[in-house]
Amino acid sequence: MLKKVNVAILGATGAVGKELLQLLAERQFPLKNLRLLASSRSAGSQIAFKGQSITVEAVSENSFQDIDIVLASAGGSTSKEWVHQAVAAGAVVIDNSSAFRMDDNVPLVVPEINPEAAAQHHGIIANPNCTTILLGVAIYPLYRVQRIKRIIVATYQSASGAGARAMTEAMVQAQDILNGKQPQAEVLPYPIAFNLFPHNSPLNEQGYCEEEMKMVNETRKIFGDPDIAVTATCVRVPVLRAHSEAVNLEFEQPFNVQQARELIATAPGVKLVEDWQSNYFPMPIDATGKDPVLVGRIRQDLSCDRSLELWLCGDQIRKGAALNAIQIAELLLQKNLLTVSNSAVSA
Ligand code: A2P
Question: Among the atoms of ligand 1, which is closest to the Cα of residue 58?
């Protein structure tokens, strides 16, 4: 039996925070105490957990006293402000923001791919970007059999990726449009209802946005393969929750399509969803609220005999964020990795 631990959720009132709470209950996570932290805006509000009501506290210097694991999902600037204090207080932080992902001292972990990396932590383990997690889980069963040389991916990302307020905004905009009113955009830069737009993260000199570069750099780090060629086009679409991705994989040698299907059908964290007769394949509404990444339309690339095409959908808030973080926490308990090893992490 796993030992019980004290857990704090930083960002407990957000979309990922709420999912973390649900998963802790659903998976019977061995909790001693649970502390819910957010900004001063939500301090004093009550959140129900397993029949109890827990008061949300504004994060402060004292928040991490006696805490074993912090699940942080309150954005990069909040993580930069508080994560080191949590580590100094003796906690291990599983950080869902991008603040530490590319830090050499911070493992970037997807338990189905590189669980061994978790053992290298110095107090912080980073949870990868949602699109990268979903892609990685779907393609790793193939990569294990034959190295992937190049990945070309286009994403179809839901409003949930921009937080709970963006999901509400999408619904309000849809209602406004149906009522003949002009949709207002405040959280996302443009109306998302009945529309789509290229991901609005900052662009680099080569014309790639930050979200696309996360897919490039994080995939290489998780796979421990700095030479995989990755190019991505990330697009925000009018879906509430669950991201989709169209993926082209180039191998060194041709990859048998039937073997690819069998590998994906039996791998952990993925589910093969293909009904070629009825043209039924993964859809965001079917992935919503589900743990596995749904994969289908696996087919030979007509333009290259060493390449496969596939389509995936995964719940961005679940496996793309909260579930992956909880799986890392479970791994820490199972492998007895809660002790912070030697040197402190770089600031
Ligand atoms: P709050 O509700 O008090 O603003 P989402 O990604 O769904 O928008 O959620 C963001 C989460 O991060 C919320 O729980 C939010 O709390 C929390 N948060 C945002 N800014 C801060 C901050 N400066 N300090 C602590 N928590 C923060």
Answer: 25
